[in-house]
Amino acid sequence: MTTPAAATPAASRLPQQSRSRATRRRLLEAAVECLAELGWNGSTVTVVAERAGVTRGAAQHHFPTREDLFTAAVEHVTAERLAAVRADTGELPPAGPARTEAVVEMIVRLYTGPLFRAALHLWVAAATEEPLRERIIALENHVGRESHRAAVEFLGAAESTPGVRETVQATMDMARGLGLANLLTDDGPRRTGVVRQWARILDAVLAAPPAG
Amino acid sequence: MTTPAAATPAASRLPQQSRSRATRRRLLEAAVECLAELGWNGSTVTVVAERAGVTRGAAQHHFPTREDLFTAAVEHVTAERLAAVRADTGELPPAGPARTEAVVEMIVRLYTGPLFRAALHLWVAAATEEPLRERIIALENHVGRESHRAAVEFLGAAESTPGVRETVQATMDMARGLGLANLLTDDGPRRTGVVRQWARILDAVLAAPPAG
């Protein structure tokens, strides 16, 4: 990327770039925390900048609008979380019921933590706030595709077998429903039984899908 | 209920009571419509009163606070919807795969219409608005129990069989996730495949639950 500004010696440019990247990352992480705790109404650029220890001006330099900031934040943290999950797949049990259960637990964990709570606030705000709607639809499509692909891979699901694709989708839908059920109260005890049972069913279906 | 006011002759009291009940019902229905369309931020008592064709004072006579109005509205419309579903169960096919599919479709329909959308806005608002939180937790418990009971009944599920209770719960969680997936875009085409596949699985599991 040779631009006029590239006349600056590389040595003095790099720390500046890396400080800027660090600021950006702090803003994105603070934005997800704010959304999860305070909801859309309470999450302003000012509140996020304060939490990130950055001036409001610096925040606006990185993200010109509130919508830019929060959409980028949910996208960034989701990508990081998926990457962390991918890095951990070596720890999963080998193919079989124990692996299926571990994968279902992993998916459900993604949907019941602060990231899902943040995404939920953004999602519901997008239903009535025009400037958010198109962005969140695009984000939802992107995240949905990535999560589905990861689930298929971790489960070792044969998507060409009729019904398997829909069964994996149903698993993501159930996880989303469990996330919602965990919003106001700790749904953990009930969820444990549902997840265990779902994993048993999923394992049996992946091994031998029911005939159409 | 004999009170001093009961001195009014019954004939003139009854029409007044029935007008009051009709006003109350109009307010409750308008409140659910507003929530579904405008979200929590846009749903004020004034907006609901206008839509119901009632003065703001009359609305406040029935529901002293905004929280009273919207909590009562979601509760009322849910009860009406469940009663309507119960009234229609005679139309369901006899026990077997066709009935299971019809029941799953019915449950998912409840979670993908305007009533769920209204409840979702209220639910997410309750995560950050203290005056709503306790009421919505109580409402969620009540509605969850009623819906679960109805699902068990319509499916003819034997809850004493290990795993059956959790399988029905998973069905409700999946339906809730499908409701969320339908918030910003029409998820109907994808949903059809998921519902059909889940109905097949559910039917097989209810007939012969997988061993623990």
Q: Determine the N-to-C terminus distance of chain A.
A: 55 Å
Write the element-wise H/E pattern of chain A from the N-terminal end onward.
HHHHHHHHH
Mean pLDDT across residues of chain A: 92
* Helix percentage range of chain A: over 70%
Low-pLDDT ranges of chain A:
1-7
What is the makeup of the main sheet of chain A?
A: none
- How many helix segments of chain A? 9
Provide the β-strand percentage band of chain A.
under 5%
Domain HTH tetR-type (chains A, B): 21-81
InterPro entries (chains A, B): Homeodomain-like_sf, HTH-type_TetR-like_transc_reg, HTH_TetR
Keywords (chains A, B): DNA-binding
GO molecular function (chains A, B): DNA-binding transcription factor activity; transcription cis-regulatory region binding
What can you see in these coordinates?
Chains A, B: Residues 21-81 form the HTH tetR-type domain. Chains A, B: This is TetR family transcriptional regulator. Chains A, B: Residues 1-11 have a biased composition (Low complexity). Chains A, B: InterPro entries: Homeodomain-like_sf, HTH-type_TetR-like_transc_reg, HTH_TetR. Chains A, B: Residues 44-63 bind DNA. Chain A is an all-alpha fold and 212 residues long. The first copy, chain A, has a domain at 65-207. Helices cover 77% and strands 0% of the residues of chain A. Chain A has nine helices and no strands. In chain A, α1 (10-42) packs across α2 and α5 crosses α9. Chain A is elongated, with a radius of gyration of 20 Å. The N and C termini of chain A lie far apart (55 Å). At the A-B interface, α1, α6, α7, α8 and α9 of A face α1, α6, α7, α8 and α9 of B.
